[in-house]
Amino acid sequence: MSGKRRLITVWRIINNGVVNFIRNISLAIAAMAIMVVTLTIVLFSLIVNYTFSHTIYQITNKIDVSVYLKNRVTSAETTKLIGEIRNLSNVQSVQYLSKEQALKAYEQQNSNNQQLIQAATETNNPLPPTIIIKPVNLNNLGQIKSFLNEPNIAALQTDPPSYSGQEKEAIDRITHATNVLQEIGVIAVIVFAVVSVLIIFNTIQMAIFNRRDEIQIMRLLGAGRGYIRGPFIVESIIYGILSAVISVIIINAAFQASSGTLQASSLGLLDIGYANNYFDSHFIVLLTVELALGIVIGAVSSMIATRRYLKFKTR
Amino acid sequence: MILLDRVSKSYSRGGKPSLDRISLHVEPKEFVIVVGQSGAGKTTLMRLLTREERQTSGKIIVGGIDYDKLKDREIPLLRRKIGVVFQDFKLLPNKTIFENVSFALEMVGMGNQEIKNTVPRVLEIVNLTGKEDNMPYELSGGERQRVAIARAIVRQPKILIADEPTGNLDPKHAWDVIKILEKINRYGTTVLLTTHNQEIVNKLKRRVVTIKDGKIVSDRANAGYKI
């Protein structure tokens, strides 16, 4: 086949696919309705999963380890200690509060309790200089703990380190719960994705099953496999593209509506405001993922579905 | 043009064969009618020639192609050389009349201009000028069969196989179809027609091959219908 002939053939395959799509519009709408629903569920579960992850990150970000230093610790010793803490692998960030800064922070925290504020004044400042450590992984505080408990380090401290106000146990529970939630989220996204792949695959198979006679006729006329199959694949890719676009539009409309009416913008763990922002800022990525999913599933399932009717009997 | 040498076809192992050692030779430009009652083996013969089925034994050579040496991927090339007309028309339901005919040309990569020139000429031969933009369901049975004939001959095949093309048509339309087949034969195409319509066979006065129980029981020139 010459180059020009090949070009004309490719053009005809695409053209036939588009024409078939229009002429079989009722079948197309039925198939696309199912694709839209499943793709919307996948997209929604994806966003929900990211939003959960964000919420969990915010919760765990508030958890830190405070190290209280004795007043006599020199600034050189403090700098050295901070450097050593920074070198620990499980440390995300280190913040140093001098006596004065610690007092300011204390006043802010207790601004509604005058008695507590009066108890600690600048002249009579009971607060120690404090190092605040944000760990990377809350479930692995052992490394930080054992470092702080080394005798020469412990000697610099007035009190044992505080793990977010001694609420370690509560924190542990929260982190455990969030870990489970995150895992469920990932599993849910995977399950939804797999189920929708199967449903879409089945839908396209049914659509092509309805038209298996056409394939048979084209075969009897001596049409090549690619020439028979091409328009069906093009048609299924059109299903995929349109369904992806529609499902993104639906999600967009849902966020527009919900962020307008739900003033609180938060439903427990599901932070709608964040989900909406996430959707807006990742719009191109999400649209691409949806399109890729729609196109790939459409193309692959139509290829598999047509294959069955294209085999030559060699009895 | 068509050569069958002791061709047998059994659908089940050890069962009664649908075709039993059939030998037949058709010259170029011949018009041959294959007659026989339902179940005699006419359709099996046609399906072997279009390679929808494979013979159990024997040799088939059509237009110089030996079917034993034909690979699966070469089957489309074989089918492009033979024009086939079916009893149930087998038009593509979602394509217009023009598209049904042009499909046979498009799939081999013929240029648009050539298609635009060729298709109307062929539709004229089968008296369907003006129906280009109709869909198959808008046509009568006779018209649909003529579309199928147009599609079969548009590539100017050397051989045209028509399997009971008049089976679903009333006598007037049936005769229209037969007249077109005769016209095509005059232009130089070898025609192999199966039918069990006595009137058509008697009027045509052509070579008649009679099949009964999978065997050729008579093969006579300028014959009438006799079973």
Tell me what the structure shows.
- The complex is a heterodimer of chains A (about 325) and B (about 230).
- Chain A has a four-stranded antiparallel beta sheet.
- Chain A has two domains: about 5-60 and about 175-310, no CATH class; about 65-165, Alpha-Beta Plaits (2-Layer Sandwich).
- Helix content of chain A is about 70%, strand content about 5%.
- By secondary structure, chain A is of the alpha+beta class.
- Chain B has about 230 residues and is of the alpha/beta class.
- Chain B has a domain at about 1-90 and about 155-220: P-loop containing nucleotide triphosphate hydrolases (Rossmann fold), CATH 3.40.50.
- In chain B, the strands form two sheets. Chain B has a six-stranded mixed beta sheet, sandwiched between helices. In chain B, strands 2-1-4-5 form a four-stranded antiparallel beta sheet, covered by helices on one side.
- In chain B, strand 9 (about 205-210) and strand 10 (about 215-220) form a beta hairpin.
- The interface of A and B includes residues 5, 218 and 314 of A.
Record the SSE blueprint.
The complex is a heterodimer of chains A (315) and B (227).
Chain A: H1 3-23, H2 25-61, E1 65-68, H3 75-86, E2 91-97, H4 99-109, H5 114-119, E3 130-135, H6 142-148, H7 151-154, E4 162-163, H8 168-209, H9 212-220, H10 225-261, H11 272-281, H12 283-310
Antiparallel strand pairs in A: 1-3, 1-4, 2-3
Helix pairs in contact in A: 1-10, 2-8, 2-10, 2-11, 8-12, 10-11, 10-12
Chain B: E1 2-9, E2 19-26, E3 31-35, H1 42-49, E4 57-62, E5 65-66, H2 75-81, E6 82-85, H3 97-106, H4 112-125, H5 141-153, E7 159-163, H6 171-186, E8 190-195, H7 198-204, E9 207-212, E10 215-220
Parallel strand pairs in B: 3-8, 3-9, 6-7, 7-8
Antiparallel strand pairs in B: 1-2, 1-4, 4-5, 9-10
Helix pairs in contact in B: 3-4, 3-5, 4-5, 5-6
